[in-house]
Design goal:
Layout (H helix, E strand, L loop, with lengths): L1 H11 L5 H14 L4 H14 L5 H14 L3 H13 L7 H17 L3 H12 L15 H8 L3 H10 L12
Helix pairs in contact: 1-2, 2-3, 3-4, 4-5, 4-6, 5-6, 6-7, 6-8, 7-9
Length: 171
């Protein structure tokens, strides 16, 4: 019923706040979805209704979901959307997350060289601000370490110094 009411409101006032509200409704449905496919479908719908500034976070979440469910082509498509701006100029977070997802896809496909290149590209996202806690996804780092690529991981960690605030200069 919620969806139908918002869709009807959009018909009457297409430039109003209703699309944004519908996007939030789909996001809430995604949080409580019973299956990954339901969650993905709800996130896809949320993205189409979201405001430009909201899309990168939704696209990042969706690309990670696709990666975790083994849908590598969809994960790569959505990660590339992040790198292309997902409705605007790509933010540092979009560049960071897009490259991490593409790196994980490459690693799962056995292309360690491309995975390392994507890890380093993530670390060099311009104006990256990782706050006080740093990156939340270390799976690409772990995968490359497991594959014996210590050098790329160390270079990546060093590149995070400027974006990892309040770390006292430590990584």
């Amino acid at each position: 019923l919620t969806i139908q009411l918002y869709e009807r409101a959009i018909e009457f006032d297409p430039n109003g706040m209703w699309k944004n509200n519908l996007s939030f409704a789909y996001q809430n449905f995604a949080r409580t979805a019973a299956t990954s496919s339901e969650k993905a479908a709800d996130l896809e719908k949320a993205i189409t209704m979201a405001q430009t500034y909201q899309r990168p976070n939704l696209v990042a979440e969706l690309s990670g979901l696709y990666l975790d469910t083994g849908e590598f082509a969809k994960a790569a498509d959505r990660a590339n959307d992040l790198l292309l701006g997902a409705g605007g100029s790509p933010s540092a977070d979009a560049i960071f997350n897009g490259n991490l997802v593409l790196g994980r896809v490459a690693l799962r496909r056995g292309d360690n060289k491309e995975a390392a290149r994507r890890l380093l590209a993530a670390g060099h996202a311009p104006n990256l601000n990782l706050g006080t806690v740093g990156p939340s996804d270390w799976s690409l780092v772990e995968g490359l370490l497991g594959a014996g690529d210590r050098e790329s991981v160390l270079t990546y960690l060093d590149s995070l110094r400027d974006g990892w605030r309040y770390d006292g200069g430590r990584i």
